[in-house]
Design a protein that fits this description.
The chain crosses the membrane at residues 21-39, 59-80, 92-112. The chain has 113 residues and is mostly helical. The protein has a single domain (9-112), classed as Up-down Bundle (3 helical TM bundles of succinate and fumarate reductases). The protein has four helices and no strands. It has helices spanning 9-40, 42-51, 55-83, 90-112.
Length: 113
């Protein structure tokens, strides 16, 4: 059973911020591996770039962009909570952060596809 405090949009925004940050942290080793391939030479990097042209990888890239924008949007919400004196338009900030991440993801998807 979900407690009443967990039904608040702020709780879900905080959860989204934490989970997107965790997912991005799990992505970092793969990112550093690809950067390491660039140091090994052009052939290794070219092989990885050919592999990244697969449709499943393109979908994963879209997911990564969504996670980045969600983390950014909800992180800005946290900064606003910490440093700004007003507290009433929280639902609007949460909606704007989520909407901006979806918009960025859609723009990325249109540009890649």
């Amino acid at each position: 059973m979900i407690r009443a405090s967990r039904n608040h949009p702020g709780w879900w925004a905080a959860l989204g911020h934490r989970l997107s940050g965790l997912a991005l942290a799990l992505f970092l080793p793969a990112h550093f591996l690809v950067l390491g391939l660039a140091l090994e030479g052009g052939d290794a990097l070219d092989g990885m770039l050919v592999w990244t042209d697969r449709p499943l990888v393109k979908v994963a890239e879209w997911g990564l962009v969504m996670l980045l924008t969600l983390h950014l949007g909800f992180g800005l919400r946290v900064l606003a909570l910490e440093f700004l004196p007003w507290r009433d338009p929280l639902k609007m900030l949460i909606s704007l952060g989520a909407g901006a991440s979806v918009l960025a993801g859609l723009v990325f998807w249109i540009m890649v596809a």
